[in-house]
Amino acid sequence: MKIGILQTGHTPTEMADIAEDYAILFRTMLGEGNFEYQTWNVVDGDFPASVDAADGYIITGSRHGAYEDHPWIPPLEQLIRDIHAAKKPLFGACFGHQIIAQALGGKVEKSQNGWGVGLHHYDFDGKEMKLNAWHQDQVVDLPPEARVVATSPFCKYAALAWGDHIFTTQAHPEFQSVFIKGLIDYRGKGVVPANLLETAENHLAEENDNAQLAATVTRLMRGEGIA
Questions:
Q1: 20, 41, 205, 213 - which has most CB atoms within 10 Å?
Q2: Distance between CA atoms of 70 and 73, rounded to whole angstroms?
Q3: 122 belongs to a structural domain
């Protein structure tokens, strides 16, 4: 089956040796041989011709805010609504999580909690999972029909689902520690409070639960739900 990766940002050029682009991180997470992939750089105005261009979709992270005024935001929101109406599998991480929530009636804004970076602990229906994060923005108003799949003291709506075909996470299950280290070095310094960067760096050696989230996204893409 074919997965369309809707790329809403690009890896910082200084980190090109870590990942060619965000789409590569998701291909690695799900396995190059498990699906056919096609990337559309929606951040640059490149969109699929129709919702039927792929069997399922992934929306990546981005340095942009879902609420910002960019010409590619409204057509992306409409595409999200079309994917939802067609009940095609859709997964979003970080910005992807936020733009899906916004497109389907929720609200996104800069959180009063500030920056969340590095390894965070989330409660997925009573099961603790450790995933990397890198964000200021959060979903603050729950969209209609969405159900909360995960939460944390820092992020109330940490993962959401619509039916059995849409699943989103504020965390980055595609980010391994080497990528977080790159963000600390090239994106974080002078922007993110130094104490948060230090804490994130101190936890780089800890194991994460990316593989479990990857298995969930794989089931989602194959039409098997997220249970």
A1: 213
A2: 6
A3: no
Instruction: Say whether pTM exceeds 0.70.
Output: yes
CATH at residue 149 = 3.40.50.880
Give me the domain span that covers residue 149. 2-111+136-175+210-221
Residue 201 within a domain? no
- Between the CA of residue 12 and those of 133, 144, 148, 163, 186, what are the distances in Å? 17, 35, 31, 35, 8
Say if residues 5 and 23 touch (Cβ distance below 8 Å): yes
| H or E element in which residue 177 lies | helix 177-183
As a whole number of angstroms, the distance between CA 132 and CA 176 comes to: 7
Strand partners, 137: 110
Alpha carbons 77 and 66: distance in angstroms, whole number? 10
For residue 145, count other CB atoms closer than 10 A to its CB: 13
Tens of pLDDT, residues 168-206: 999 999 999 999 999 999 989 889 999 999 999 999 999
